[in-house]
Design goal:
Layout: H1 3-20, E1 31-37, E2 55-62, E3 65-74, E4 79-86, E5 89-91, E6 94-96, E7 99-103, E8 106-109, E9 114-117, E10 119-120, E11 126-128, E12 133-141, E13 149-158, E14 165-177, E15 185-188, H2 192-199, H3 206-221, H4 238-242, E16 250-251, H5 258-263, E17 270-271, H6 281-297, H7 320-323, E18 330-331, H8 335-340, H9 342-350, E19 354-358, H10 376-380, H11 382-388, E20 393-396, E21 434-435, E22 444-447, H12 448-470, H13 472-479, E23 483-485, E24 488-489, H14 493-508
Parallel strand pairs: 2-14, 15-20, 16-17, 18-19, 19-20
Antiparallel strand pairs: 1-3, 3-12, 4-11, 4-13, 5-6, 7-12, 8-9, 10-22, 13-14, 21-22, 23-24
Length: about 500
């Protein structure tokens, strides 16, 4: 062999050795791609389902955000520096560009000997260990002015040490629109001091105020209204938040604010929340005194006080509905209390008063809730339950309860036993967000549970539109395929997809 050819062959051999880490015969790692519903919680070690799809097919209304998951499953070799991207979806009707890609992270549940997928930080470069699944959460937001029709594009997965693979993403935009904001009210806690602490800033600093506003906007983007506005309710800036059609409620800070809010037409979404979960005689005295003070300003002002039991003292047989009659006008039982006392709530509705409900550290399964070890439908079903049972709002005590390690958690990324003083085996209660500082995000990081709540609020609008078109009995037939009672509902992900598609097709006619 000529000398030049020998030198060239040697160079090629050296390059192969360097590229493969010393083994010129080594192959690049292989891996698989498959898709899953947003309702399916994918575990790292589970087997690929036999019916796993090789493409993503989404259906959505105008003005809706719709999600799915692509799952990367590795073989005996890990993937390094995986880059994932999805180009704008195009079709004869135009282009859809608002696309979000989030990496599904896992939370340890040590007392249950489980892990749970939940945090959704941005899907920047990441590795995937050998013989593991790594889901990536995809959310596509359809503009309100989008044209109905078919759209498609490809999602690309590019590891540094393996070949690029692609998956087809198809989207059908139906010929109807969701409203600009939810019809089902929400009232969720969002505590500025816990946010500030997690981001390492002083509670009353300008940085804390800015972060609180970011968290507030993040929730509202998902159609969830926090208790407190991020500005003073009587300030000039308040109207921007209160008039946002995505905002359904806010707490009025005091009776001194009422006249200013009324003069600016900002009172209707406001409510007072003077006492939480009254039980004792003292609780009821404080509640009734507070209601009397508020209603002395205006008897029509709205007041809520969540409750899960009747009074624990001798009331002569009176329930909360009798003791607080004429005082409360937003009745907010726990979901379990409602299920055992439906007629009491419907009597209040018949009087023209409001009926909300709430979940917190109870009820447990088979009721729906936001505990980390629950399945996807448990996080999505509550708004649809609200439609079925004429409940007008959902209250939840906190999305950011990150107080302290002794009774809760000081770091939700590593410890989601958030209410240790109540139940050390309960994970995720009061924490639907993650503080972004730990993953380089100047603001909140979402969770699977919060994203499924948004999908549930959108489900509610589907049913409302269907009721308007076909009447309540016809809408009930669709809902009954998924819901039997507040603690008995369909967990089959495929059934959820079929019912939603049937409704969407009907509304598009």
């Amino acid at each position: 062999m000529p000398v030049m050819k020998l030198k060239f062959a040697a160079l090629i051999a050296l390059a192969l050795i360097l590229f493969t880490g010393g083994n010129a015969m080594a192959k690049a790692p292989d891996y698989q791609l498959w898709s899953a519903s947003s309702l399916t919680k994918i575990l790292p070690d589970q087997d690929k389902p036999n019916d796993a799809k090789s493409e993503i097919a989404l259906y959505a209304a105008k003005g809706e955000s719709e999600s799915a998951q692509i799952v990367i499953t590795t073989g005996s070799e890990p993937l390094k520096n995986v880059r994932i991207s999805l180009d704008p979806l195009t079709g004869t009707a135009g282009t859809i560009t608002k696309i979000e890609l989030l990496k599904v992270e896992y939370i340890d549940l040590p007392n249950l000997n489980k892990i749970a997928p939940d945090p959704l930080p941005p899907a920047t470069l990441f590795d995937v260990s050998a013989n593991k699944n790594q889901p990536v959460w995809i959310t596509i937001s359809i503009p309100r002015n989008a044209k109905a029709g078919e759209y498609s594009g490809h999602i690309s997965v590019k590891p540094a040490n393996a070949a690029e693979k692609r998956m087809l993403v198809k989207l059908k935009v139906w010929n109807f629109s969701l409203p600009e904001g939810p019809g089902h009210k929400t009232a969720f806690g969002l505590t500025k001091k816990w946010i500030a602490r997690q981001h390492g800033v002083e509670e009353d600093s300008a940085a804390a105020i800015r972060l609180h506003a970011k968290y507030y906007d993040f929730m509202v983007d998902r159609w969830v209204s926090p208790y407190w506005l991020p500005v003073v309710a009587t300030s000039d800036q308040a109207a921007r938040y209160i008039n946002d059609p995505r905002v359904t409620t806010y707490i009025i800070p005091d009776t001194k604010s009422v006249e200013s809010l009324r003069e600016r037409g900002l009172l209707d979404k406001g409510y007072f929340y003077p006492v939480d979960e009254p039980i004792t005689e003292d609780d009821y005295k404080r509640l009734i005194d507070a209601c009397a003070s508020i209603h002395s300003v205006d008897p029509k002002l709205r007041i809520v006080a969540p409750y899960f039991v009747d009074p624990n003292y001798d009331t002569g047989g009176k329930t909360i509905h009798e003791l607080a009659d004429g005082h409360l006008n937003i009745w907010c039982p726990s979901l379990e209390y409602f299920n055992n006392n439906k007629e009491r709530l419907y009597a209040k509705l018949d009087k023209g008063e409001e009926f909300w409900w709430y979940v917190c550290c109870g009820p447990a399964a088979p009721y729906p809730n936001y505990f980390l070890d629950m399945d996807g439908p448990s996080h999505r079903v509550l708004p649809m339950l609200g439609w079925k049972y004429r409940c007008q709002g959902l209250l939840y005590w906190s999305a950011t309860y990150w107080c302290c390690s002794e009774i809760g958690t000081s770091d939700p990324w590593t410890d989601m036993a958030t209410v240790k003083n109540i139940n050390k085996d309960l994970y995720g209660d009061g924490s639907l967000l993650y503080p972004g500082k730990k993953v380089g995000v100047d603001g909140p990081v979402s969770s699977i549970r919060l994203e499924l709540l948004r999908e549930g609020l959108e489900d509610y609008e589907y049913i409302v539109l269907l009721e308007k078109k076909l009447g309540r009995p016809a809408a009930e037939k669709y809902v009954s395929k998924l819901i039997t009672s507040p603690n008995e509902f369909n967990r089959n992900v495929n059934d959820w997809a079929k019912v939603r598609k049937s409704i969407g097709d009907e509304l598009s006619k």
